[in-house]
Write a structure and sequence with these properties.
heterodimer, A: 694 residues, alpha/beta, Alpha-Beta Plaits, FAD/NAD(P)-binding domain, five-stranded parallel sheet, 20 strands, 33% helix, B: 190 residues, mainly alpha, 9 helices, 73% helix, 0% strand
């Protein structure tokens, strides 16, 4: 007995001594913070964070590989405590949330009858699953089974619905989904998602240059969740009040209902919710990621610059806008007349964006008050250039220096800065050009008291690049159109004033590179238009005179259209710190293009200043369409009337600059949103389910 | 020749998992993924060889001379637990790469009854030192083999349609039974 006790004591003591000696001999210095950090973690060893156990996660935190919020099970208090140990701002932890992008489910047809194992993984192995949609949800619920937190359930339409409150962002569902439909991302990461070939996208969303999730916001309007609709739009486009008024809505051209019926009035619905927010007297809160302390200079406060600043601010960076004009808005303020986009609407919209914490320097012009180099010297981490295209092309004809001749943007911006929006005009005016600027000029001239206003355009109405609604509105207002006319000279009255515009009549010949028929002059057909004012609005180019003073000018590539050469996917210029978007990169284009460019640049700038590799996706759509999502016919659509655009009667509107287009009523918005087929890549909700059966 | 016989016997004929049914807890717990199964197999081989040798030494030079064989169980457990701790510290300092590779599986082995079982079997069969060492290695390799085969099967079972009452662990146990039957075919080889 004694021996037994002694032997056991001996073995125990030997083991103990060996271990204690070993712990000295094999001592490895370990950061004491690892133990402290691990103390605050949940200790569940669940692996939800992506590390092998809590210990490994704690090491990850101390080594800077993970943020204080890495533990998905522990609450926010734990994150704050861990941040305290690490001496960092706890805010860097943005919650991860899971999102399912497919809204098809049972709406999608089946290619074959499947009798195999009822898991998504097994089904994918057989020709990618039985659904006709190559990327759609198969509805077997691998994600539902993978969720440890009961946050995913199979919805009534056969695709999973995620409960955001229960979701901890562990990422198990993302791993489980063989189709890659479920993504677990932070709010910031979501803001930087661009359309890809393998995404679940409706044709309208593929078309939208800002890539707004159109079916989702219309669905929310239908459900009466106007705040949700506004927030959905704001994930892609911060200027919804402006776009709701001036966007030519290319999306509606690809509306699936438009194939069988009239397209859904998407833009009027956007304007409806945007106006609803403005008139409700309460600004819906906009979430921003925690501060990163990175500074970005934004040159130009137009739609591209404001959009880029807005997205950078939401990502937690500190943008500062430099604008040459006394107010922000760029071409939307100084190029679009008051009757289309009132100043007070724009002011309200921009105020909301600046309230997020964006600094602005007004009346500072690039090349005069500062240079790209001086911004770099001030310590900005990156620079975004969105100075637009403000330099009008001239006609290049005789007599263009006479009094009474002006250029489109010049005229519109002079009018915009005038205190009561009034500038002196002639009695009879001709505007040369067929674009939106030309239309803006003629309709403004009419409102300023001009008696007879002509549009002189060298092709026909069909080829006019201006928005159809704008052309129709100007026809209603009594604008005279002189088609197939190319100005050849401006006639002098002998005292240096304009007396008339001589033009050559044209006929349409063979189609040119743009696909439009090329106008060919008819010899000897000179005609004189009796006018005392001529405005040329034949497109613009960026004003890049400031480049002369830049030390880096040799390295910055400029195209022959005087735009900045950039990578179309990342918008990065030939010097790494400079990014461009909007008209200065694309040449004159739509407001919504500039907004999309601002967001795209914000993604690249975010990658650049956080030290990531700047890259887009090889599957990026870039406004191309997914062929399988474009239909020839859409069975099951029953015609229903599109809500007409409410507008002021002509007699009331042409006397002043009062806004012409009105907002639709809530009842109309309900009706219009119910016309939406809620399309996805292939799925849609037909109005009539059993049409084929009948 | 004797050692080859031992190896074949321990890996196939008397496979610790499939013929002796020891160590079923890690067998089910770490066999869901091939990656973890490999990690566990490596860790078991490493620890079992050491444990087999050390417990053999303890038994032959300490317990038997003093007629204390009835203390075998408690002494072995103490030694195995300490050994795992020691190995962990040693690896962390000397071979950090291996330590990181084995990761969480090293401490888990403390509670692996296959390790204890092999140590006891070595003693019961009254093996010499070298045969005990080879036996330990053979059993550990057999454990690894069974675990890897099983993990491969389970990865494929995930793709199969399993009736609801039999899902997950149930089907795993049935599969284990079937593999065990197939290993039965090795009986009589040695």
């Amino acid at each position: 007995m004694t021996i037994a006790i002694l032997v056991m004591l001996g073995i125990g003591a030997t083991c103990g001594i060996i271990l204690s000696v070993a712990s000295k001999v094999f001592y490895v210095w370990e950061d004491p913070r690892i133990a402290e950090v691990e103390y605050f973690m949940a200790g569940a060893n669940c692996g939800g964070c992506g590390f092998a156990g809590c210990g490994a996660a704690a090491v990850g935190v101390v080594e800077g590989k993970a943020g204080p919020g890495v533990c998905v099970v522990a609450d926010a208090e734990a994150a704050i405590n861990i941040a305290g140990v690490m001496g960092v701002d706890p805010g860097t932890a943005e919650p991860l949330k899971s999102l399912n992008s497919c809204s098809g489910g049972d709406r999608a047809d089946d290619k074959f009858i499947y009798n195999g194992a009822m898991t998504c993984a097994a089904m994918t192995a057989l020709y990618g699953g039985q659904r006709v949609c190559s990327i759609g949800c198969m509805g077997m619920g691998d994600c539902v089974k993978s969720c440890q937190f009961d946050a995913i359930h199979m919805g009534p339409q056969g695709f999973p619905v995620i409960d955001e409150f229960k979701c901890v962002g562990c990422g198990a569902c993302e791993t489980a989904c063989p189709k890659g439909l479920i993504s677990v991302k932070t709010m910031s990461q979501r803001l930087l998602v661009f359309n890809q070939e393998d995404h679940a996208l409706a044709p309208c969303q593929q078309t939208c240059p800002a890539e707004i999730d159109i079916p989702k916001y219309i669905r929310l309007i239908k459900e009466g969740d106007y705040e949700g609709a506004v927030n959905t739009i704001r994930e892609r486009n911060p200027l919804l009040l402006s776009c709701g008024r001036v966007c030519p809505h290319p999306c509606e051209d690809f509306c699936r209902r438009g194939i069988e019926d009239e397209a859904v009035s998407i833009n009027q619905l956007k304007r409806f919710v945007a106006d609803y927010e403005m008139n409700s007297g309460r600004r819906y809160p906009i979430a921003c990621a925690p501060d990163t302390g990175k500074k970005v200079a934004i040159i130009g406060g137009g739609p591209a610059g404001v959009s880029c600043a807005y997205f950078l601010r939401r990502l937690g960076h500190h943008p500062t806008i430099y604008d040459a004009m006394p107010k922000l808005g760029g071409i939307t303020r100084y190029g679009i007349p008051e009757y289309r986009l009132p100043d007070k609407v724009l002011d309200w919209e921009i105020e909301g964006i600046l309230n997020l914490g964006i600094d602005v320097h007004y009346n500072t012009r690039l090349g005069e008050d500062f240079t790209i180099q001086s911004l770099r010297d001030e310590g900005y981490d990156a620079i975004f250039m969105g100075i637009g295209a403000w330099k009008d092309y001239t006609l290049g004809i005789k007599g263009e220096d006479l009094n009474g001749i002006t250029q489109g943007i010049n005229f519109l911006s002079t009018m915009a800065v005038a205190p009561d929006k009034k500038v002196p005009v002639g009695k009879r005016a001709a505007v040369v050009g067929g674009g939106n600027s030309a239309i803006d000029c003629v309709r403004s001239l009419l409102r300023l008291g001009c008696e007879e206003v002509y549009i002189v355009y060298r092709r026909t109405r069909k080829e006019m690049p201006a928005n159809e609604v704008e052309i129709v509105a100007s026809e209603h207002e009594g604008i005279k159109f002189q088609f197939l006319a190319a100005p050849t000279r401006v006639i002098d009255d002998g005292q240096g004033n304009v007396k008339g515009l001589e033009y050559l009549q044209m006929k349409l010949g063979e189609p040119d590179a743009s696909g439009r028929r090329r106008p060919v002059p008819i010899e000897g057909s000179e005609t004189i238009l009796d006018v005392d004012m001529v405005i040329s609005a034949i497109s613009q180019q960026p004003d890049i005179g400031f480049m002369e003073g830049e030390p880096d000018k040799e390295n910055i590539t400029i195209t022959r259209w005087k735009t900045f050469d950039n990578d179309p996917e990342t918008l990065q210029c030939s010097v790494p710190y400079l990014f461009t978007g909007g008209d200065v990169a694309t040449g004159p284009s739509l407001v919504v293009d500039a907004i999309g460019g601002g967001r795209r640049a914000a993604r690249s700038i975010h990658q650049y200043i956080t030290g990531e590799e700047i890259k887009g996706s090889p599957k990026s759509l870039l406004k191309r369409h997914i062929p399988e999502s474009l239909f020839e016919t859409v069975p099951g659509v029953v015609k229903s009337k599109r809500t007409p655009m409410p507008e002021l009667p002509v007699a009331e509107r042409i006397e002043s600059m009062i806004e012409v287009d009105l907002v639709i009523t809530e009842a109309d918005a309900k009706h219009e949103s119910s016309r939406c087929l809620d399309c996805c890549r292939l799925c849609y909700n037909p109005d009539q389910q059993d049409q084929n059966a009948a | 020749m004797e050692y080859i016989e031992i190896i074949v016997a321990t890996i196939f004929v008397n496979n610790i998992l499939l013929a002796q049914f020891l160590g079923n807890c890690p067998f089910l717990g770490t066999s869901k993924k091939m990656e973890t199964a490999l990690g566990m197999a490596m860790a078991v081989i490493f620890v079992l060889v050491l444990a087999g040798v050390i417990t053999w030494l303890i038994y032959d030079y300490l317990l038997e001379p003093y007629k204390l064989v009835y203390l075998r169980t408690i002494a072995f457990i103490l030694v195995i637990a300490s050994l795992v701790q020691f190995v962990e510290m040693f690896l962390k300092k000397s071979i950090p790469a291996l330590y990181a590779g084995l990761g969480i599986f090293l401490p888990l082995i403390t509670t692996n009854c296959a390790v204890f079982g092999v140590c006891v079997l070595n003693i019961d069969k009254e093996l010499g030192f070298m045969p005990a060492l080879v036996t330990s290695f053979g059993y550990a390799s057999g454990f690894g083999l069974a675990l890897i085969i099983f993990a491969g099967l389970r990865e494929r079972i995930l793709l199969a349609r399993v009736p609801k009452p039999l899902q997950d662990t149930s089907i795993a146990l049935i599969t284990a039974g079937v593999i065990s039957l197939s290993f039965y075919a090795f009986r009589g080889m040695v």
